[in-house]
Write a structure and sequence with these properties.
about 140 residues, nine-stranded mixed β-sheet, mainly beta
Length: about 140
């Protein structure tokens, strides 16, 4: 029997599928099931290059994801905690790489690195996060 202080964990994965000159394309999975496509800024080699504000993707790794209030969107959004060299990293809606300053955009990917149905994809993500929060589960995203 679980006590109230014990938490379980839900593991998400962001698989980066293509690294282009100006953006990074990927897929977000929850428990092995695809939730949506992702779009991020250019992905760099963190061993050789330095972060450029608004132009680089976050480093590969494992991050806890929590719901927080965004002053930019004036609404709740998923935030990744303890991202090296970055602060305020969110998962949010957007159409193309110009819509992000280092965050992860969600939606359905079209040719020419554009997203559609971004708000629908964000709501799917939020619904899963709200459920996890209500049931006392932590959400962790592994990005690779």
């Amino acid at each position: 029997m679980r006590t109230k202080k014990e938490t379980t964990r839900i593991d998400w994965e962001l698989k980066r599928m293509a690294r282009k000159e100006d953006c990074t394309l990927g897929c977000l999975y929850c428990n092995g099931v695809k939730v949506c496509d992702t779009l991020e800024p250019h992905c760099i080699d963190w061993q050789k290059e330095k972060k450029v504000y608004g132009q680089t993707a976050i480093p590969e790794g494992e991050y806890r994801c929590v719901i927080g209030y965004s002053t930019r969107f004036k609404a709740q959004r998923p935030y990744l905690e303890n991202v090296p060299h970055f602060s305020g990293i969110m998962i949010h809606e957007g159409r193309d790489v110009r819509s992000t300053k280092g965050c992860i955009l969600v939606g359905t990917l079209l040719p020419h690195e554009r997203l559609i149905y971004s708000k629908v994809a964000l709501e799917k993500v939020m619904e899963k996060l709200r459920y996890a929060e209500k049931s006392g589960q932590e959400v962790w995203i592994t990005i690779y």
